[in-house]
Specification:
single chain; two-stranded antiparallel sheet; 9-stranded mixed beta sheet; 241 residues; globular; alpha/beta; TIM Barrel
Length: 241
C-alpha cells in the first residue's frame, strides 16, 4: 500500500513544522510525517525548514548561531497566532504513542552542522519509535555518515532533478530509499527502474489528485504531500479500502 506522508505536517491547516501541524496530520490519517531539522549552537535539534528565524526584536538570525533558549521566544505561527519552534524530542514525544512514521530531514546542504549525525542517532534511539524513523538529506555525505555510525539506520536520499538512471547511483552509494522531486518519476522508465532495483520511492511534494492516482497505481512506497487528508481519501478510494 502506498503510504501518505504529510509534508511539514498538515501545513495548509496549521503553521508548518509545528506540533499543531503534526497533530493535525495524525487526525487526518497520515501514515507518516516529513519534517526538517537544524542544530542549535548548544546542540539541540530543532524543527524548522529555513536556516534563519526572525527574533522578537526583528533581527534575522541563523539557527546555528542561536541557543535553544533563544529560539523559545521565536514565533513561527504567522496568521495562526503564536507557535514556537519545537525540538525534535518534543515531536517524538507527540508521535511515539501513534503509529505514524517520521521522516527527519537533516538540513545540512548549505551549512553543515558539526555533530548533527550523532545528535540524530541519539534522539532517535531515545524516542521509543526508532523503528519508524527515516533520515533524509540532500547532503548525501550526511546520510553516509549516519550509516557509518549506525549501519542499520534507515536513510533516504533526496534529489531535485537531472540524475540519469538514479538507481545505479543509489545502489552504488548504498541507499535503498529515495525521495525525489516528483517530476523525475514522470520520466519514462524511472519508476520501473527504481522499483526493479528494490528501492523504496517517496516523491515530494505531490499535491494533484491525478498524480496521486498515477503513483498509487504504479505501486510506489509513499507520497509526500501538503494535503495528507485528501491524499489518504484518494488512496483509499483507489485501493477500495
Amino acid at each position: 500500500m502506498t503510504k501518505i506522508w504529510a509534508h511539514r505536517g498538515s501545513r495548509t491547516r496549521a503553521p508548518e513544522n509545528t506540533l499543531a501541524a503534526f497533530d493535525l496530520s495524525v487526525e487526518e490519517g497520515a501514515d507518516g510525517i516529513e519534517l526538517d531539522v537544524h542544530l542549535t549552537s548548544d546542540g539541540h535539534l530543532v524543527v524548522r525548514h529555513d536556516a534563519e528565524v526572525v527574533l522578537p526584536e526583528g533581527e534575522v538570525a541563523r539557527i546555528g548561531g542561536l541557543t535553544l533558549e533563544d529560539l523559545r521566544h521565536v514565533d513561527v505561527g504567522g496568521v495562526w497566532g503564536f507557535h514556537g519552534v519545537p525540538t525534535l524530542e518534543e515531536v517524538y514525544d507527540l508521535l511515539a504513542p501513534t503509529g505514524v512514521e517520521l521522516n527527519v530531514e537533516a538540513k545540512s546542504a548549505d551549512a553543515y552542522y558539526e555533530g548533527i549525525e550523532d545528535a540524530l542517532i541519539a534522539t532517535r534511539d531515545a524516542s521509543g519509535m526508532a523503528d519508524r524513523v527515516v533520515f533524509s538529506s540532500f547532503n548525501h555525505y550526511t546520510l553516509r555518515n549516519l550509516r557509518q555510525r549506525d549501519p542499520e539506520a534507515r536513510v533516504a536520499a533526496l534529489y531535485g532533478d537531472g540524475l540519469v538512471d538514479p538507481w545505479r547511483y543509489l545502489k552504488g552509494a548504498g541507499f535503498d530509499e529515495v525521495h525525489p522531486f516528483y517530476p523525475n518519476l514522470l520520466i519514462p522508465g524511472a519508476i520501473e527502474g527504481l522499483l526493479d532495483a528494490g528501492i523504496a520511492v517517496r516523491p515530494w511534494t505531490v499535491n494533484e489528485m491525478d498524480l496521486w492516482i498515477r503513483f498509487i497505481e504504479a505501486g510506489i512506497d509513499g507520497i509526500i504531500t501538503d494535503l495528507p487528508g485528501d491524499a489518504v481519501e484518494t488512496r483509499d478510494a483507489v485501493l477500495g479500502d
